[in-house]
Amino acid sequence: MTTTVPATTRVGLLVRLEAKPEHARELQELLTEALPLAEAETGTTAWFLLRLGPTSFGIFDAFPDDDARQAHIEGRIADILRTEGPRLLAARVDVRPVDLLAVKLPAA
């Protein structure tokens, strides 16, 4: 089986966040406002914010390599979550590194 994965999207992170019910809207706003930070990260090639339920959110991001993924984990968005998380989150952030097996991206 042959799989083509662009060099810009070889690895990723699948993140799940569960907000305290009274802070779901605030967490949504905080995460939405993080988009410019993700855009500024040269190694973050894709970043998606997802609503999974009334208090559940997800983030999927893609990177060319493990170094870029690690830089993101150590970056500004993670810093904000470490600072604001105890107040906003009902549970620990679930961060799962993933390897991308197949990717469809728009033509450049």
Sequence-ordered SSE layout with sheet pairings:
Elements: E1 11-18, H1 24-32, H2 35-40, E2 46-51, E3 56-63, H3 66-73, H4 76-88, E4 94-99
Antiparallel strand pairs: 1-3, 1-4, 2-3
Number of E-type strands: 4
> Which bin fits the share of residues in helices?
25-40%
How much strand content do the residues show?
25-35%
Low-confidence stretches: none
The pLDDT mean sits at: 94
What is the approximate shape? Answer: elongated
Distance between the termini: 25 Å
**Biggest sheet record:** 4 strands, antiparallel
Order of helical and strand elements? EHHEEHHE
The helix/strand class is alpha+beta
CA-based gyration radius: 14 Å
Please report the number of helical segments: 4
**Physical arrangement of strands within the biggest beta sheet:** 2-3-1-4
How would you sum up this structure, described in words?
- This protein has 108 residues and is of the alpha+beta class.
- It is built from 4 helices and 4 strands; from the N terminus they run βααββααβ.
- β2 and β3 form a beta hairpin.
- The longest helix is centred in the C-terminal third of the chain and has 13 residues.
